[in-house]
Amino acid sequence: MRVAIVDFGSGNLRSASRALERAAREAGRACAIEVTADAAAVAAADRIVLPGDGAFADCRRGLAALPGMVEALERAVHGRGVPFLGICVGMQLLATRGTEHGTTPGLDWIPGECVRLDPADPGLKVPHMGWNELVPRRAHPLLDGIDAGAHAYFVHSFHFGAREPADVVATASYGGDVTAVVARANVAGTQFHPEKSQATGLRILANFLRWRP
């Protein structure tokens, strides 16, 4: 199985690669994991991961600057049905638009808008940084084997407001519900960082490698 981690100049690429390698070993999966900015390699992959850190607009420009990359993602994900996982801003890019530093079009693979966190409790700081409990909203293969009360590690100032509630797989609580996992068909995303979320994150990555949408 070939797993492509898209390198557009943002994201914990080395950490994501190491975590996927470990998840593959523990799941008994034979995987060739490649960090790449090459559109052809992404188009031919069996699994695609899109990490991202920083501002929505910067990440969208970085992705668009890679020759043929957005088209390769469309061909692989929508043309061939390749399972896709977005992480942090990589998940936010699945939205219709982001509102950080102005309005920026997203990939529009899962309808919705990324908006600034606005916790109801004024004592809660933005960015949201730290461990929070995942609250499942519906069953999904990515959450198979995740224990009740499992925590994941978040670092973000904006969050995904999905248009369709059915696209929200899990939430976290931070002065109100915050989208933690989204999924539609063969596309999924996590607002938290599975590569930093210890056993919970490794299980989610292993589930992604096993996932057959």
Written account of the structure:
It is a single chain. The chain has 213 residues and is an alpha/beta fold. It has one domain: Class I glutamine amidotransferase (GATase) domain (Rossmann fold, 3-Layer(aba) Sandwich). The protein has six helices and 14 strands. The strands form three sheets. The protein has an eight-stranded mixed sheet. It has a four-stranded mixed sheet with strand order 6-5-7-11, with helices on one face. Strand 5 and strand 6 form a beta hairpin. Helix 1 packs across helix 6.
In short:
This protein is α/β, with parallel strands linked by helices and 213 residues long.
Q: Low-confidence segments, ≥5 residues, pLDDT <50?
A: none
Please report which band the strand proportion falls in: under 5%, 5-15%, 15-25%, 25-35%, 35-45% or over 45%: 25-35%
CATH topology: Rossmann fold
The chain-level mean pLDDT equals 95
Q: Supply the CATH architecture.
A: 3-Layer(aba) Sandwich
Please render the helix and strand layout as text:
Layout: E1 2-6, H1 13-27, E2 32-36, H2 39-43, E3 47-52, H3 56-64, H4 69-79, E4 84-88, H5 89-92, E5 97-98, E6 104-105, E7 112-116, E8 128-133, E9 135-136, E10 151-156, E11 158-162, E12 168-173, E13 177-184, E14 187-190, H6 198-210
Parallel strand pairs: 1-2, 1-3, 3-4, 4-14, 5-7
Antiparallel strand pairs: 5-6, 7-11, 8-10, 9-12, 12-13, 13-14
Helix pairs in contact: 1-6
Short descriptors:
single chain; 213 residues; alpha/beta; Rossmann fold; eight-stranded mixed beta sheet; four-stranded mixed beta sheet; 6 helices; 14 strands; globular
